[in-house]
Amino acid sequence: MAGVKAFAYSCRRVSWLLCGLCDTWIGVRAQMRLGSCQNFHDFRRLAKRRLPSPIFDYIEGAADDEVTHHRNTKAFETCDLVPNVLRGVANVDLSVTVMGQKLALPVYCSPTALQRLFHHQGERAVAGAAAKYGTMFGVSSLGTVSVEELRKAHDTPQIYQLYFHKDRGLNRGMLQRAKDARVEIMMLTVDSITGGNRERDLRTGFSIPFRLTLAGMLQFVIKPMWGINYVTHEPFRLPQLDEHVDISAGALSIGRYFTELLDPSMNWDDVAEMVLQWNGQFCLKGIMSVADAKRAAEVGCTGIVVSNHGGRQLDGSRASFDQLAEIVDAVGDRIDVLMDGGVQRGTHVLKALSVGAKAVGVGRYYLYPLAAAGQAGVERSLHLMQTEIERDMKLMGCTAISQLSRDNLRFR
Ligand SMILES: Cc1cc2nc3c(=O)[nH]c(=O)nc-3n(C[C@H](O)[C@H](O)[C@H](O)COP(=O)(O)O)c2cc1C
For residue 122, which phi and psi values (nearest 5 degrees)? Predict the structure, then answer.
C-alpha cells in the first residue's frame, strides 16, 4: 500500500514538473514572439497560431456575414485628421474623467466573456494590465474570475457588465453582489436581447462546456499546448453565475445562453428600477439610436456606450463611429458618451474623442494579445496604444484630450 502511495506521489511530482517546464517553455517562446508584435494584426496572427480554431473563431467571429464587424474599423477611414503645428507639445496629458473615474488613458478594456478560455490567466491578466496603465476594465456576467477577487487585487476602476436574466432575483442579486464588492460602474448590455447569429460557432460547435463537432475536435488535437494549459490550471468556472446556472448539466452554447436565460421582455421600466437599486454610476452598453440615448439620460443613466457589440449581434447595424456624432449632439451635454467597435489604432481613438466620445472601449484589441501571451500580451498592447496616442497627439498639436474637437476632422 505504501509503495502504491509513493508511486502515485512521484507520478504527481513528475507531472507537476512537466507542466511547470511546459509553462516556462510556452512563456519564453511567447515572450520572444510578443516582442515582435507591433500592432493589432501581429497580435491577431500570434493568437491564431496559439488557439484551437473554434476558440479563435469565437473571438474573431461576428453575426451573419460579419459586415458590421468589418465596417466598424472601415468607418474610421471615412474621416481624416487635420493637424495643427508649432504648438509646443513637449508634455502630453492623456488623462480623462469618465463617469466620475479618472483614467490615465482614454482607452478601457471593454467587458468580454470567457477570458480564461483564451489564456489561463484570463481576467486576472486583463485587470493587472489595466491597473498598470491606469485605466478601467470590465468584468462580464460571463466572466471566468470572480468580481470580488479582481476587486481585491487592484484599485483601478472596475466595470461590472450585467446581462438581464429572466430570473429577476438573479439580476437583483448580481447587482447587490457588485455593490458589495465596491465596483464603480454598472454597465447593462442592452443589445443582446437574443443571441446574434454567429455562424462560425455553429459550424465548430463552440459551447460551454465543449460540445465540438469532429472537425472542431481535430483543431484541439493539433494545438495540444492550449489543452495542456487548460487542464493543468484551475477548473473552468463562471463565478458570477455558477450559483444559478449549472454549466455542467449540458452544453450551454453562447447562443442558447442569450436565447434561453436572458429576458427578451426587458424594457425601460426595468432599467429605471435598476438605476434606482444601483444608486451610482450606471451605463447602458449597446445604444445606437438618438431616441434611446435621450431615454437613457431621462431614466437617470450617467453614461452610454455607442456600440454594436463588435458586430456580434445585429449584422447590418450601423458602425459605432458613424453613429457617434448624432448621439453626442443629442445627449453629450447630459451624460458621458463612450464608444467601442473596430478600434485598432491610436488614430481611431483620436477620431472618436474628436467627435465627442469621453473614452473608447476595446475588445478584440486586447483579447488577441491575451490569447497570445497572457498579461504580458495585454500590457504590450496597452503600451503600444499609449505610445501611439501620445505620438499622434503631438503630431496633431494637442497636449490634452480636451483640445481635440471636430475642428480637427474632415469627413470625406
Ligand atoms: C470574444 C468576445 C466576447 C464578448 N463578450 C461580451 C460580454 O460578455 N458582454 C458584453 O457586453 N460584451 C461582450 N463583447 C463585446 C465587447 O464588450 C465590445 O463591445 C466589442 O468587442 C467591441 O468591438 P471590438 O472587438 O471590435 O473592439 C464581447 C466581444 C468579444 C470579441
Answer: 45, -135
Q: Say yes or no to pLDDT of 23 above 60.
A: no
How far is it, in rounded angstroms, from Cα 64 to Cα 222?
28
Cis omega before residue 209 (within 30°)? yes
Q: What are 70's three cell numbers?
A: 468589418
Quickly state the pLDDT bin for 258 (edges 50, 70, 90): confident
Q: Is the pLDDT of residue 347 over 80?
A: yes
Q: Can you say whether the dihedral through the CA atoms of 9, 10, 13, 15 is positive or negative? A: negative
Alpha-carbon distances, residue 62 vs 7, 199, 264, 345 (angstroms): 50, 8, 21, 20
Give yes or no for residue 12 having a pLDDT over 80.
no
112 lines ligand 1 (CB under 6 A): yes
Helix (H) or strand (E) holding 59, with range, is helix 53-60
Please tell me the predicted confidence (pLDDT) of residue 214. Answer: 83
Strands 303-306 and 79-81, by their bridges, are unpaired
**Nearest protein CA to atom 19 of ligand 1, as residue:** 309
pLDDT value at position 252? Answer: 63
The set of cell numbers assigned to 150 is 479582481
Q: Fill in the DSSP letter of residue 386.
A: H
Alpha-carbon gap, residue 128 to 156, rounded angstroms = 9
Separation CA 3–CA 1 (nearest Å): 5
For ligand 1, atom 6, the nearest C-alpha belongs to 112
Residue 363 CA to ligand 1 center (angstroms) comes to 5
8 A C-beta contact, residue 317 and residue 72: no
Checking if the pLDDT of 25 tops 60, the result is no
* 198 Cβ inside 6 Å of ligand 1: no
Q: Which of 271, 269, 276 is nearest to 286 (CA)?
A: 271
**313 close to ligand 1 (CB < 6 Angstrom):** no
